[in-house]
Amino acid sequence: MKTFTLKIFLIGLIGIINCSLLSAQNYTRQRDWVIAPMYSVGAVIPPNVTLLSGTEASKPAWGVSSYEGELVKSDGTVYTRKYRTSLWGFETYYRWKVRRSENRWSIGLSAAWQRQVFKLEHPFSFAYKGHDLVSTVWNFNYLRTGLLIRHTWMKEWSGIYAQLGGYYSTLFYMNTANGRDKIEEREGGYLEGGTGYRSRTYNLQKAVPLVVPEIGMLIGENSGIEFSLSYYHPLSNLLQSENTFYKNSQVVGVSRVDISQSVIMLNFKLPITFVSNRKTISRDRKVEEPQREAKPKREPKPKREPKPKRERKPKKERTPKPEKKVEPEIKPESKPVLTPTPYDAALINKPMVMDNLYFELTKSELLASSYQELDRVAEWMKANPSVEIRLEGHTDKIGDAEKNLILSRDRVNAVREYLIRKGVSSARIATKGYGDTRLLCKPSPCEKNRRVELVITKK
Q1: What CATH number is given to the structural domain containing 414?
Q2: Which conformational region is residue 196 in: left (phi greater than 0), alpha (psi within -120 to 50 degrees), or beta?
Q3: Cis preceding-peptide flag for 302 (omega within 30 of 0)
Q4: Which domain holds residue 442?
Q5: What is d(CA 348, CA 427) in angstroms, rounded to the nearest whole number?
Q6: Which of 129, 225, 335, 381 has the greatest number of CB atoms lying within 10 Å of its CB?
Q7: Are residues 106 and 213 in the same domain?
Q8: Are residues 171 and 269 located together in one domain of the fold?
Q9: 39 assigned to some structural domain
């Protein structure tokens, strides 16, 4: 019984080897060029929200793929808008079959116009020009281009594929209640009667690189239809937004929103083959190359007799002069001198008035005479990487209290942005504005009331 089973196994093995050898004799080489229009819908992965101070912060909405409803303009006008996270574009690539297989490789280009909907829920609703506001909605638009590489596993007239794209996104603008605007650093918000919020955008990137893995399936051997799922992973944030919420003219929360282009897209493609080159290769066919006529060998040239060498007179030997030994001078190494600062001896949670800070009158723009002191603070924080601080702004009791509160907040934010540009991490700097509620001297005007204080919260 065992001998009979062994014979059947050997016969089957020999048959498989013969079939593989016969199939290896001939194979079809196919190379073609494909253009695939595409349309995609998706859902944005919510941005990261960090609470900087206070208790109230925005909440990102999950699973937002579209928005349709009313939007309130800054002047109180109401518009009905419809936004959708979507994409229109095309892929074009060169495709070829793997030898003696139906599987294929592709490499090419992709370009598309993409839209993404972002929604942030307010921590509390408030009225603005007769309308109740509960959330903020943006619709970002941009152009993305780049390269792609794909491998497809085919079985008869269908298959599955894995694709990796490296893209670059540019030409950003956004649709809001105010219409179509370029994305730029700006300030705005909805504040009425001391309740609402103000926002400020910064750290805007003109271009963002993306890594996009994708898996999908196709129906059709050459042209047909494709369905796929892709994930857009940006290598940096698009911008950052800081939102300050007010209740009865009091700041109740400050939060930072890191807006990125992370999104999951469902893609529909229509690949169309324009140029196809098919050729059957037979390994039995041998092409005989014409033999080249052998060239006659050249006769070697007769060797010339060498000329007699001239005898040279020996040169007189010169006695070398003794070399003077020069010992190198050893210079003492210079040690860096650390300049002490008044911030080294500061206590935790004890405010220190920052000297030599100057702003434009009734504005938050820093004057150039303030840069030396701020550079000193930045170097001190970089030399002490564990230190975290809070900047507190104060004004004199002149004019409207609400405007003084906003001015104090804007001034400490200007100091914070300067330190960030000098290399200090934004997570180490918190800000708070008190306006004219903490006076050092009376009556007004008094110069000591207009100040920025530094408080060390962690050493």
Answers
A1: 3.30.1330.60
A2: left
A3: no
A4: 352-458
A5: 18
A6: 381
A7: yes
A8: yes
A9: yes
Tally the domains of the chain.
Answer: 2
pLDDT tens, the chain, 459 aa long: 445 555 565 666 555 544 444 444 455 678 889 999 999 999 999 999 999 999 999 998 876 788 888 888 888 888 888 889 999 999 999 999 887 788 999 999 999 999 999 889 999 999 998 899 999 888 889 999 999 999 999 888 899 999 999 999 998 888 766 667 788 888 888 999 899 999 999 999 989 999 999 999 999 888 899 999 999 999 999 999 999 999 999 999 999 999 999 999 999 999 998 876 766 655 544 444 445 555 556 666 666 766 666 666 666 666 666 665 555 555 554 444 456 777 777 888 889 888 888 888 888 888 988 898 889 899 989 999 989 999 999 998 888 888 889 999 999 999 999 999 999 998 899 999 999 888 888 877 888 888 999 999 888
Question: What residues form DSSP beta bridges with 453?
Answer: 353, 392
Q: Position of tokens 């900087």?
A: 52
Among left, alpha and beta (phi > 0; psi -120 to 50; other), residue 31 is: beta
Residues in the chain: 459
Residue 288 lies in a domain: no
pTM higher than the cut 0.90: no
Q: What is the 3-state secondary structure (H, E, C) of 261-295?
A: CCEEEEEEECCEEEEEEEEEEECCCCCCCCCCCCC
Structure token digits, residue 377: 């603070």
Q: Do 69 and 189 have their domain in common?
A: yes
Q: Rounded to an integer, what distance in angstroms lies between the CA atom of residue 409 and that of residue 423?
A: 22
